[in-house]
Design a protein that fits this description.
- The protein is an alpha+beta fold.
- The chain is 26% helix and 16% strand.
- 21% of the residues are buried.
């Protein structure tokens, strides 16, 4: 009987020790130990990397607008045809003689000169005519008889005008009539080739005749 009692005491004592141990390791809480449904991973547990988020697809670029068609250029207005150049009027021989006489205004006087840089009185008229194909005599007296005689009122450009040295005198000077009641003559060193008025009283009184040579 004593052995059974001692055995029970031993068992009770061991059981008490076991219960005490459980209480110590349980933190002294009488609540039952609960298992955490989301236990924190321990250092020994393998770390599973979280999956990287899939990149969002880039939006498709908007289609470029189609270029507007360029407007067709307006047709250029038809250009008016250029006027045809007026045909050159060929000067007559007489007109050429008058034109050359005017070109030589200002040329110096020199006895015996017959151009093209210096003239005497008859040499000037001789040069203007010969340069245009009229074979004129060189002497003043002969020039005064060459071609057709015309009056003062009948003068045309290119005609030769003949003057006396004094009123009622003999032939002394000649010149080239150029129109507009004017003539060109080369008279002396103090008065080189120049334009003169046939209506001037001096020349009007000494006018003898005109000679048409072309």
């Amino acid at each position: 009987m004593l052995k059974k009692t001692a055995f029970l005491i031993v068992i009770i004592t061991v059981f008490s020790i076991i219960l005490s141990s459980c209480s110590f390791f349980g933190g002294g809480s009488s609540e039952p130990h609960r298992i955490d449904p989301n236990p924190s991973p321990s250092e020994t547990d393998p770390v599973v990397p979280e999956p990287e988020p899939k990149p969002e697809p880039e939006p498709e670029p908007e289609p470029e607008p189609e270029p507007e068609p360029e407007p067709e250029p307006e047709p250029e207005p038809e250009s008016e045809p250029e006027p045809e150049p007026e045909p050159k009027v060929e000067l007559t021989t007489a007109e050429k003689i008058a034109a050359l006489a005017k070109e030589l205004i200002g040329t110096e006087f020199e006895y015996g000169g017959q151009g093209p840089d210096k003239f005497d009185n008859s040499g000037f008229v001789y040069y203007c005519c010969v340069e245009n194909g009229v074979k004129l005599p060189r002497r003043t007296s002969k020039i005064a008889e060459y071609g057709k005689e015309v009056t003062r009122a009948e003068l045309l450009p290119g005609d030769i005008v003949v003057f006396a040295d004094e009123v009622g005198g003999t032939v002394s000077l000649v010149g080239i009539y150029v129109g507009d009641r004017q003539f060109v003559s080369c008279n002396n060193a103090s008065k080189p080739t120049r334009l003169l008025s046939i209506d001037n009283s001096y020349w009007k009184e000494r006018f003898i005749c005109g000679r048409r040579v072309a």
